[in-house]
């Protein structure tokens, strides 16, 4: 009894670990119809019709894959859905198109130069579809055993028993494989294939022999025959690798030196040159297909002048992806110089971009977004409370109001109420300050704080 | 089609002698690489390995065709592999026979059946309790374009191991002899020899 309860707790923890709610996890696409016209509320996206329509056209451009090295700038105030549009675009592109998301400040590292980080990001956004002979394990799951160490920390041990009509084999599972088996919710009776090299699991269906416990399965469950013959087969599969992955495979040091080199760090330009040549050759022979993807650089004003001038050059390469950038800055200093420029981006780069503006949401849209977030966070809100929250939203900011959903939800749960009422929102509003009230508080009580500069604070440099 | 012996004769060969073992590296005209290890006293191949290259590039791994497999140290980044208690096949070549040893097979001899598929030159190992199934190919026969024959097969079971013997046909014995004569003529460098004189 105790054992089964413990197992249940473990299971719940496992699921919550996988399905955490992020700032943009309610977004499932761009919310466009077939003619790329934006629906007002769809796939978690609300309003911002013009910007989404523009993103839809960019999506079409990426899917066609003919245009290389275009840059798109999403510009708008904080909290107007720039990152949401980029996330939606990534969702709409699907699994097979590479989408790399990075923040402008990510390129600063002691391990590699700024341009190297940029090249790697660019090459991560170009996919190559290539046929490769691969070892495939195909069979019916007899049993999945995953054991955690009693202490709760350390590596998990996993075993998987698979069978075909002619044989049965026990496999040991590595940590990554255990995670993906848990994620795919593989259970006994499933017929699955596993790519031995990449560890990719695909579920073919349920075995016919398990057809009698059909009421435990969903309606769309497919029933398939148990595979015959050997469990392990060699099959030709098409998979997508990014140019960066090919770079890494070909630049790894061999022999005993490989023991000492952890990460690959910088990759030699000669290796890249050689790989570009090889990929071009494959493409001509029809062996491979190039899938240009999308590189999304958030907070692009954090790049400095060297990166911008490098981008100028990189975008001219025919192997470069579509680069989408987002910024919330107005006319400001370009990092690394003393020059002012719109969005903190040099004019020559701005000239090469198409700029998509995002506009502040109106009250109706804010309400819509708040109710979508409530659903995502599983918080029931009274109509009155939603109205109050929308009011708060227009007066403070969207992000603050979204924070209040979670906190007010917790307050309501404390008093065991099924729905969040006005009092809960009020209480949360009083407990947690928004930005403007915090500033008000500071100006009121600044004398009592340490290291206070008094009146100088007003002229503080906030860049 | 050029026969296998000519291909091997035309291959670029590098050779090293260690005791009574002679290791020969063949670089075939089509870019494939093979390494054979000969016991110079018996003239029998003790190990043979092929380099398997992927399309994406990289160094590639050695696939052991005959002889004991290389020990592997990679344990951290394994995704999925057979449990060590599961059956595995290793191959040997003796003077008269091609030999397969399938270890970790605990069932008694009457469970197994080995049939030959002459066209595809495969040995098919089946178990009547449906616990093990394996298709073994015979690369030696494939290379010489010989057909496989059922009556050349013998098998026995001992110490949890199923041993399958396939008696070599005359053509194969002749080919191996010719190749061994060729191997004997290659100039081998001794272990410790260097290409250049260090100062």
From TrEMBL, chain A:
Gene3D superfamilies associated with the record: 1.10.8.60, P-loop containing nucleotide triphosphate hydrolases, RuvB-like helicase, domain II
GO cellular component: histone acetyltransferase complex; nucleus
Pfam families: TIP49, TIP49_C
Domain AAA+ ATPase, chain residue ranges per copy: 68-360
Cross-referenced InterPro entries: AAA+_ATPase, P-loop_NTPase, RuvB-like, RuvB-like_C, RuvBL1/2_DNA/RNA_bd_dom, TIP49_P-loop
One GO-annotated biological process of the protein: negative regulation of signal transduction
UniProt GO MF annotations: ATP binding; ATP hydrolysis activity; DNA helicase activity; transcription coregulator activity
Signal peptide: none
Reactions it catalyzes: ATP + H2O = ADP + phosphate + H(+)
Main location: nucleus
Record keywords: ATP-binding, Chromatin regulator, DNA damage, DNA repair, Helicase, Hydrolase, Nucleotide-binding, Nucleus, Repressor, Transcription, Transcription regulation
Compartments in which it is found: Nucleus
EC numbers, comma separated: 3.6.4.12
Top-level division of the source organism's lineage: Eukaryota
Family label: Belongs to the RuvB family.
PANTHER family: RUVB-RELATED REPTIN AND PONTIN (PTHR11093)
Stated role: Proposed core component of the chromatin remodeling Ino80 complex which is involved in transcriptional regulation, DNA replication and probably DNA repair.
Name this protein carries in UniProt: RuvB-like helicase
Origin species: Photinus pyralis (Common eastern firefly)
From TrEMBL, chain B:
One Pfam family this sequence matches: DPCD
UniProt record similarity statement: Belongs to the DPCD family.
Name of the protein in question: Protein DPCD
